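User: Show me an example of a complex going from sequences to structure tokens.

Assistant: Sure. Here are the input components:
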Amino acid sequence: MSATLLLPAAVFAPFVGAALAPWLGPRLKRRSGLLLWLAFAPALALTTLVPAALRSAPASSSIAWVPTLGLDLTFRADGFSLLFALMVGVIGVLVTLYAAAYLVPGERQGRFFGYLLAFGGAMLGLVLADNLIALFAFWELTSVTSFLLVGYWDSRAAARDGAVKALLVTAFGGLALLVAVILLGLGGHSATLSGLDVTALRSSPLFAPALALLLVAAFTKSAQLPFHLWLPTAMEAPTPVSAFLHSATMVKAGVFLIAKFGFLLDGTAFGQVGLYVGLATMFWGSYLALRQNDLKALLAYSTVSQLGILTAMYASGHPFGATAHLVNHAAFKATLFLVVGIIDHATGSRDIRALGGLARKLPLTAVLAVPAALSMAGVPPFGGFISKELFYEAMQHEGALAAVLAVTGSVMTFAYSLRFLTVFFGPYRADAPEVHRPHTAFWLPVLPLATAVVLFGVAWPQHTVATALTALAAPGLGYAVKPLALWHGLSSTLLLSAVTWLTGVLLHLLRARFAALQERLTPGWNANSVYYGLLASVERGAGDFTRLTQGAPFATHLRVLFLGVAAVGAVRGFGVALPSLSAVPVDMAVATGLVVAGVGGTLLTRSRLSALIYLGLAGVASTLIFVLLQAPDLALTQLLVDTVTVILFLSVFRFLPAMRRYTRPAVQGVLDGVLATAVGATVFSLLLSVQAPVAPHIDPFFLRYSKLLAGGTNVVNVILVDFRGYDTMGEITVLAIAALAVLALLRLQTQQRLEPEAEGPAEGGADPPAPATVPGPSEGDEDPGGAS
Amino acid sequence: MELLLPLVASLLIGAGVFLVLSRALIRLILGVAFISYGVNIAILLAGEGERHDAPPLLQLPGPHNDPLPQALILTAIVISFATTALLLVLALRAYQVTGTDHVQELADRPDPARPVVVYADPEYPSVSPEIGTANDVDAGGEGADT
């Protein structure tokens, strides 16, 4: 298959599998995993692209979407991307097979495998994407699928909480990444990663903010301080998910980002930031791992710590050692997670304090676990030792502080690795009544990973296997491969390793005392308490804001609104020159008199019928004013509308109670009066200040072309139906919707009025009508409410 | 006259504001109607250029009055009619369902169509979560395949 086809196929095949999974799940049940791993087959086929990547001529493919905006689905398989993609593919296959044995019958298989495969596709897309926006999109997809997988057991509060936390933290980083890739694209004049103009980018003012945001994104995804808090709680996910997403692949996306953009970090302060954040995370992660009693929590904090190593090395320009460690970590950590899943299933517990001597009951599992744990500890002849040496070597170049942090962190790593192994040795003390051996389907998928752990330290043709794998990424990241062996002579690095082992053993032996010390040193707050505090304050703030702005009575909202209007008057109104009241024509005086009468009457009357008449009076007055202002169409319309309005009011009055006097408290009345006066005064002053036109009047146009273009002499009509015809159409639509609403409400009323009659005698009663069901006006109404 | 008409418009609007703040539903609707009257006159006053003595009817000798504000107000009159009619029928309906025409009582009444949601105080787990085992999943749910 050509690369142009293979690259998109590798990314999208898992998505196709995800779409099929919900259909397969209920049919094949637990066996669906045995079929669905095939979705990763195209990813495994990416191996065929390795030679091209080694020749520094990486395969690529592009699917155009919006080329003018630089939005294309461009994939590019350079060595590093390929290494990552193969890692995702291999672990994806093994985890899918493992999950088939792990999930208990009765679980929602379709959903699980659907999420898992969708994640696999997103992760493959992320590592292979060359287009910056596509990179961001796949990045976000991994966050979303991770959220779904962590919350898979959604009946558990802890799983939901872990899912939300993971999503909030990583989505925050996702936003940073979006801005970062946009800035990079703008500064580097390219929509693709490989096409960035590095010289232009480095001199661009966008360079520093882009890198800062890039680091924020990487730190959130890869659980670096202070964003490490989400990873341990994400362990609520089923164990295959923890092995796949939260140790081997997704959490390495941040590291992947730092590695990909490592050439930009070189020689900037951001490289140093990455170095020390990584080292601090490494130190703090292993310190916390030492405190855990849950096997899975121990591995979670261990992952945080190991991600710190990778961040530190990539950020400070040691991609060779970092890549070696990346491969090693993926192998041993995935193995350990899957082993924990087996222990959990076999004994029903993951508590280190409750488990011991399992090697006798689960010999095969122990065989799988011991090399992996020793590799994590950095003991030869396993791969972890080689990369630990590279780490030490790199940190010695970075100064004393870096070296000290690296060694102390590694000492604690060594200690917790030994602690992990205690569950297999010593007297047998599993609490479970009987320990059952894992099914072959359970441990078989772990075997290749455990084999890899061993193989990575073994010499193969001339270097170790890990070195050979690391060489694959060399052209992509642009580093030289150094041949590495387990033994490379006496050096300061080896000395540091020896110190680590000795101190590590000592620390393990003194574990009880050290644990007591840790207990005493635990501060009252941590990243989690900050997170929950922040979350609670957001909720509280939102509640307070809502109560403050939404809880008030209706009239209060209006008062605030009117107060704003009055404020405009207060600001703009003063200083408006009052024109003198020249001779008032008689007809105008009559109209004014009518308005005053209408307004005054409405305000004073207690009868709704009189109020209606006064309203009509004001309507007539405004009709008169329209006539006087030479607006005959308005006068006509106003008269018609007023007539219909009065009829409408009258027909509705039939069903409404007499206008009761809900007098407001005297103070309120006075205040409302003042407010109303202020609003009136505002209108008055604004009207007086609108004297000079702000824009040239356009009436000459209408007057000139009305006859010419539209053939009408009534210019107002022509404007309505021709020049501004769409406006009128909108108006008619509004009118029609209002009419429909009125009709619907009136029909509702007649229907409900008929119901009690059909049911028999009216129930009456003094209790207030129950909402929604009881129709009609309540008793005491002036209208008996016959058929309407 | 230049003083009189702005005065009339602001009188109508001011009275409308006072009525809208009232507690009786009917007076609220009357208030909306008054505000519409006032606003229409205000638009006419503010929008016109030089005032002439002839309406914008071309068969009459000019100079003609500005037709544009008139066209806009014509739309406004019709829309405010629709608003008033809808408000009126809504008020009627609200009274029939709830038995009150008091604005605040209406607002305080729980909406029968929407159940009252009580938000429980979410209890988040402590720092180091108690991670359960794979087996304590409640069986069933969508797509369960036992």
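The lines above are the inputs; the final block is the predicted structure for all two components together. DSSP finds four helices and no strands in chain B.
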